[in-house]
Amino acid sequence: xxxxxxxxxxxxxxxxxxxxxxxxxxxxxxxxxxxxxxxxxxxxxxxxxxxxxxxxxxxxxxxxxxxxxxxxxxxxxxxxxxxxxxxxxxxxxxxxxxxxxxxxxxxxxxxxxxxxxxxxxxxxxxxxxxxxxxxxxxxxxxxxxxxxxxxxxxxxxxxxxxxxxxxxxxxxxxxxxxxxxxxxxxxxxxxxxxxxxxxxxxxxxxxxxxxxxxxxxxxxxxxxxxxxxxxxxxxxx
Length: 237
Prior knowledge:
By secondary structure, the protein is mainly beta. The protein is built from 5 helices and 13 strands. The chain is 15% helix and 41% strand.
C-alpha cells in the first residue's frame, strides 16, 4: 500500500470532522501525534484548545455563545505514564481510568459507543501511543453505528507495532460533508509524515478547510528520552 499525502487528503475533503494522526517522524526519532477539530455550527466553531497539565482540553472561546457543552468540551489528550491518549471526546477519560486499573485500550472502550447525536451518530475515534525502552507502538479505535442504526455499535481496533520512519495513520469521523454526516469507513489511512514539528504542523493547519477548521494540536515525543514538544493552532484568537 502506497502512503497517501496528508495534505491532499485534507484539501480534498471540506469536512472530515475531527481527525487523529499517529505515526513516526521521517528521522525515526519521534512519535508523532496530531488531533484537529472542525465545526459547522456556531456551538462547534466556538472553541479553542488550551494546555492542561501534560495534555490539552477544549474550551469555549466566547462563553456567551456556548449552548451545549456535552459533546464539545472535553480533554482530547492525556498522558498516563509512558502512554499518550488522544480521542475526539470524553472517552479520553474512560481510557485513562480503565488503563490506570490495568485494563487494555480495547477493554476500556467497551463501556462506550458512538456519540448520541442522531441522525449523525458521530463515531468515537481514539488513539494511544506506548513508548518504552526506545521502542514505540500505537493503536487506533473507532466505535461507530451500524450504517446509521443506533441499535448496533461496530467496534474496530487497529494496532501498529514498530512503525516505519516517515509513516503514520490517519482516522477521522466523517467521510465528507453531508446531512446526515456519513461515518468514516475502512481502516485508518496510511500516510507520509515529513519534516519536524513546525513543518508538519503547518502542512496540516494550512490544508484544513478554512471555513470549517477550528483547532489543531501536534506533539512530537522523543522515543529515547520521552521528552516532547507541542504546537497548538486556534482559529479563534
